[in-house]
Amino acid sequence: MIFFCMLPLSVLLIVWDGHSRCLDGSSGLQLVNVKMILSTGFKGGADMKGHKTKCRAVIVVVISIWIGLAGLFGLLKPISNGCVMTYMYPTYIPIPMPENASFAKYGLYLYHEGWRKIDYDAHLKRLNGIPVLFIPGNGGSYKQVRSLGAESDRAYQAGPLESDSYQASSSLGEGLDIDLTDILLPSRYTSMLDWFAVDLEGEHSAMDGRILQEHSEYVVYAIHRILDQYKESRDARAKEGAFVSGILPKSVILVGHSMGGFVARAAVVHPHLRKFAVETVLTLSTPHQSPPVPLQPSLGHYYALVNQEWRKGYEVQTSRAGHSMSDPSLSHVIIVSISGGYNDYQVRTKSESLDGIVPPTHGFMISSTGMRNVWLSMEHQVILWCNQIVVQVSHTLLSLVDTTTGQPFSDVRQRLGIFTKMLHSGIPQNFISSRRLQLPQKSDHFPDQKGKVDSGLRVPSLSGCPSDSQWSEDGLERDLYIQTNTVTVLAMDGRRRWLDIQKLVGKITLFLSRISHLVLACDFIFWREKGTSASEFSSDKHVVEVTSKMVHIPSGPAPRQIEPGGQTEQAPPSAIFWLGPQDMHGFRFLTISVAPRPTVSGRPPPAASMGVGQFFNPKDGEQVFSPYRLIHSVYSEKVVNLKEDHPLTLNLTFSVSLGLLPVSLSLESTGCGIKKSEFEDPGDLEISRLCRLRCFPPVALAWDATSGLHVFPNLYSETIVVDSSPALWTSSQESDTTSVFLLVDPHCSYRSTIRVSLTAAAGRFLLLYFSQISGLCFAVVFFALMRQAYAWELDNPIPSLLSAMESNLRMPKPFVLLVTFPILFAVLFSCLSSEPLPPIISFSIVSILCYVFANGVVVVLILLSLLVFYAAGTAHVFIRKRWQVWEGNFCFSCIRWFINMSSSFASNKVVRILWVNPVLITSLVAIALVCLVHPALGLFVLLLSHALCCHSALFSHVHTKEFYESGNDGETGSMLYNNKHNGDIGKLFLVNEIYTASPQSTRSYSDTQLDVFHHRHGLLLLHLVAMLMFVPSLVGWLQRTGNGQRFPWFWDSVLCTGVILHGLCDSKPEFNFFLFPIPGIPLRLSLAYLLGGYFAYLSALASAPYRAFYAMAAIGVVSLAFRIIQTRNRNKGETYHRSRKHSHRH
Known about the structure:
Layout: E1 2-6, E2 11-15, H1 34-42, H2 50-76, E3 90-94, E4 107-113, H3 120-125, E5 130-135, H4 146-158, E6 193-199, H5 209-239, E7 253-257, H6 259-268, E8 280-284, H7 297-313, E9 317-318, E10 324-326, E11 334-339, H8 349-352, E12 363-367, H9 387-399, H10 412-423, E13 480-482, E14 486-490, E15 497-500, E16 509-514, E17 523-527, E18 551-552, E19 575-579, H11 581-584, E20 589-593, E21 610-616, E22 622-625, H12 627-632, E23 638-642, E24 649-654, E25 663-671, H13 683-694, E26 699-704, E27 708-712, E28 717-720, E29 738-743, E30 749-756, H14 758-768, H15 770-793, H16 801-808, H17 813-832, H18 840-885, H19 890-906, H20 909-915, H21 918-932, H22 935-965, H23 969-980, H24 984-989, H25 1002-1029, H26 1031-1039, H27 1050-1065, H28 1085-1101, H29 1108-1131
Parallel strand pairs: 5-6, 5-7, 7-8, 8-11, 11-12, 13-15, 22-24
Antiparallel strand pairs: 1-2, 3-4, 4-6, 9-10, 14-21, 15-20, 16-19, 16-21, 17-20, 18-19, 23-30, 24-29, 25-28, 25-30, 26-27, 26-29
Helix pairs in contact: 2-14, 2-16, 2-18, 4-9, 5-6, 5-7, 9-10, 15-16, 15-18, 15-25, 15-28, 17-18, 17-28, 21-22, 21-27, 22-23, 22-25, 22-27, 27-29, 28-29
Pfam families: PGAP1
Protein name: GPI inositol-deacylase
Family: Belongs to the GPI inositol-deacylase family.
């Protein structure tokens, strides 16, 4: 028996004969050199030439292992999300279900907030709020509704949030055909939210399409049950004589977390759902575009089906004459998707997008990093209890209720406008990309505070200023005339700053950063050149107020004053304002002032309001980091020194998305106008402390085309990362770059360092391209099988999998044809279709890197499988040795008696037929399990068949080689034949295998068995990867054991049946080609494997690895058809089966 183990510097081969004796006659152990090892498990029939070829596979494995370990290290590091915990006093009231309910294993609950014990029946009778149904996600619990339910109750009791003094950007309504100024938020809440939650038994809906379908069916039932419960409660109150007012709810708001959001969407398009029963859907961290683990075919098919129904739901049905026949079926439904950002490792932002599924007029996606009052990225589960986002969501849902009717607004534009105003931060989406706010191009036309364009210039109305602002009207003699490029404004001195635009015309742009988050500035006034007197201050022809264009940014709390009169660190910026040259055209002066906030009795004194502004040229602060500079920063960090009076803004452009290569950015203050004494050196730490007292903390604003705006306040040392999805087939050109906008105090000098974080980059690589790597593993094995089949067709020895994979990685021809051709095809397809063209360079590089990583994964699987054969060989030899020791014992007689009884049973005709047809037994058992139980179990039976065949072939090969080398070649054939048919013991321990060649010589028979091993080993690896794709689904199936099971999804059963047919019909090397009766057109298996590899490659690039099952099933069906044709032709005396030139190699 042959078995081996991998060691760090060598490979050990241990050979035992069948009689537990040593071939060299001493220790029972034979060490064989590395060449012999390569001739069995590593090389096969083809030699690896030179050390370069041997090292190629090692390099691939080392790269894959390093990326995997570094990525896991980066992903397992603790995350500081900045969320505040939500506290509650939960009570879950079960909703009674009819006795004939078809979903007895699931449940429905009503949430109640409060610590007092209540009467469930009495509470249900008083039910009269707005129904909201929470749907948990993969493995989630109905109790996860508690945070939303508790904060909604508090929000209803406390009333609406305080409105901002600053107006949101006028660009928020773009593409929605909505005037946000007409969207009025309520001043009080008239109806509370009744939170319901479905109990889905914690089932793993992200792993199986059947579970998803069952969940959506139950949610439809739960929606109807909730609406019926409101009617029952109203009737019960009326029956008791209580006063009944208001109207019954006609719809339920759906809130879904993770896969629960997709279940909500599936329920909306379910044919049994009542019309208008759902009009609003809110999803949290929900993958809409594709499954988070797209491994199971039925899961991908169900996703495609639901998304297609949503697309059809918004299409207008027209007659042949082009007239509209009826409104779209989903015209009343809006949906909002909230993403958790880059800290959500389970679902990517790109997958949570609604693009291509829902039109912009009926929904949008927003990241929590750019969400008003949130500004945080959070993990997948944290989004359910993070107080910042829970509070904002609660107030948003309460704002959907019409105060006159007590029910949610029926108008789609009204509901979508409320979501927009409540969730969007107000920062324009192109704030960084265009490096300026969305202000009108002409200074004579500014939007007024209602967002409408005014053709004339008027005195600014201060109605939008804070009511507690106190402005002085003393006149211009107290104002300050600023002639420098940088200006600092303090609220405490009460003076306006005048800046002469004409004298500062050398600098192009003014950027003002207000650093207090407690006070809102509201007095920015332009003066024309002739309007310089105080009498013209009130003129409505020469001034314009532009305060409403200020943009909020998140900031931490202002440092508290430790003692009266003591100095504290500067507060971070809380709002920014940008004017371009076209905005200042035609004006002479700019005045700036900051309103103080008075002290309120009983509260701590407010921090002093302050503003820092600067006229600067934006090009002075631009920095472009090319891919070479980023890669080089891995080894040598990039240093950028900023001297005092530097540009207030630094625009950093990274040519590679920070979603793929996150960078560690640090800013260390080196000076702030403090001169060193010649007698005492304050030291770096003291300078840094003093500078923090004088300069505001830096702020970074990162912009990504996929996930939007990311804000990093108080930036001194931070890893800048965005949740983008670059270098994908569906990525746009904009996703390949990231813009980072730094706000740095010009009064201080800094030393900034930039370095690519390797662990973060490796973690992002695994997160972004897991689907591609999974599909490319199929392509790698397909290409290796193609190499093996091609060698057999050329009458050459079949190479091992490692040798075949190494040959496919050789440059230039194999690598170009197998690796780069599918990438070129994908780019060409995008050019010819309406799909956006991906970034070609990054798309090609990342795809090739994923392919190399997939090769490393497959190599590791090969080595693990060989290790399993080693363990099986060890067990085999141990049992044979013990068997011979036990032959004289009494216990052995009992065992022999049992074996003889088994032999008599095996003499039965039916049993003999099944015994000599192991392929028939395997196919029946595997297909039955696939169709009736679970596909993974059927594939496991197929794997067991491959493993037993590999074990038998390897055993025969080594035995033949042993006796050939020991000079007993004349006895080999008879010995092997006797071992195979030596009675009960041989049947017990040896696998009954019909070999592909009779042993005419020891050399030819040994090599033939080695070919069988390599061929079946390749099939084993391919079907092992296929079975691993169904392991998540098997986990979900095992969890549901005992709760009622349905048959597997039909499509999964069909595809896995095709995979089983492929494994059994092509189980022997002589079947390794097709030859159909088509004149002059031979269709060989190597071509089928090549096409299958290309199809799996393209499926991986499309982030749909489950489509590789289509290729395997197609090859299996074609193989079965060829076997049927071949059998019929043999019966007729004709055959299209071509044998090899030499069945045995001498």
